[in-house]
Amino acid sequence: MRRAVCPGSFDPIHKGHIEVIARAAGLFDEVIVAVSTNYAKNYRFTLNERLEMAKTTFSALSGIVVEPMGEGLLSEYCHARGVSAIVKGLRSSSDFDYELPMATMNRQLSGVETVFLPGDSRYLHLSSTLIKEVHTLGGDVADFVPRAVLRRLQGDVGPDTRPVPIVPPRR
Ligand code: PNS
């Protein structure tokens, strides 16, 4: 089985992410959307909330699973999960400049390749940070995020601060 991972904070997931992940699912047997935790970062949404928004978004699509990535190295996660490729979307040359050293490091650490997919032109301007800012200042972000995210941004769903279960490695 050819398994790929799309790692990220997904705080929150938006249509740029979704479009790239859906295309990745056409290239691999299984795509894991791995939701990361970095305790140096201040997230708008808890890990459970970020997982729930991504799970709801992909619930109707086969071949895409969503799970927490944990705090460790992505290369070790790939090894533990039997992942042969990391898939990243590129919006710009600065994305490439940021991603290239990580792709090289991950390949040297574990042999895992990184596959870059060019972002769709409709979504090149999107980032989770920009979406949160626009929404916080009263702008309409409904065109940029899935329904599950819009509901959380609008406060239609209560906060989820439960601890996240450990996911055992799969092969
Ligand atoms: O959405 P983000 O915050 O840009 O995602 C970043 C992520 C999770 C892809 C990156 O921080 C990562 O790979 N973290 C895992 C830690 C790691 O392996 N660091 C070394 C990278 S070479």
Automatic annotation (TrEMBL):
One of its GO terms (molecular function) is pantetheine-phosphate adenylyltransferase activity. Residues 5-133 form the Cytidyltransferase-like domain. Coiled coil: none annotated. Its EC number is 2.7.7.3. Keywords: ATP-binding, Coenzyme A biosynthesis, Cytoplasm, Magnesium, Nucleotide-binding, Nucleotidyltransferase, Transferase. The record marks 17 as: Transition state stabilizer. Pathway: Cofactor biosynthesis; coenzyme A biosynthesis; CoA from (R)-pantothenate: step 4/5. It is found in: Cytoplasm. It catalyses: (R)-4'-phosphopantetheine + ATP + H(+) = 3'-dephospho-CoA + diphosphate. It comes from the Bacteria. Gene3D superfamilies: HUPs. HAMAP family: PPAT_bact (MF_00151). Reversibly transfers an adenylyl group from ATP to 4'-phosphopantetheine, yielding dephospho-CoA (dPCoA) and pyrophosphate. This is Phosphopantetheine adenylyltransferase. It comes from Arthrobacter glacialis. The gene is coaD.
